[in-house]
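Journal club side-thread
Mid-discussion, someone asked how the predicted structure for our own chain would compare to the paper's figures. Pasting it here so we can look after the session.
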Amino acid sequence: MEKKPIVTCLCGSTKFKNEFIEANFKETMKGKIVLTVGWFSHYDGKIYTPTLEEKIMLDELHKRKIDLSDEVFVVNVGGYIGKSTRSEIEYAKGLNKPIKYMEG
C-alpha cells in the first residue's frame, strides 16, 4: 500500500508572501500536501484589507487548516513571529502537532 503524503500547514506573517510561495513549492516538491493562507493581507493590503470580522474569520479558518494538518511549518523570516502566528503555534502545540521553523 502506498504511504499517504504528509499534510503540512504553513503559518507566518502574511507580509512574507514570497517566502510563503517558496515554502509552498519546496514542501510540495518533498511530496507533501500544503495548506496555506488564503490571502496575504499585509503584503497585498493596498489591494484589499480584510475587515476586523473577516480577519477573525480568516484566523479561525487557518486554525481549521492546522486541525487538518499532520505538521506545521512556520515561515519566520528573520525570526519574526507576530501575534496571530504565535496564537497558531500555541494552538498547534495544544494539538501536539510537530512544528518546524524556516529559521532558527
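Post-session note: The two ends are 36 Å apart (CA to CA).
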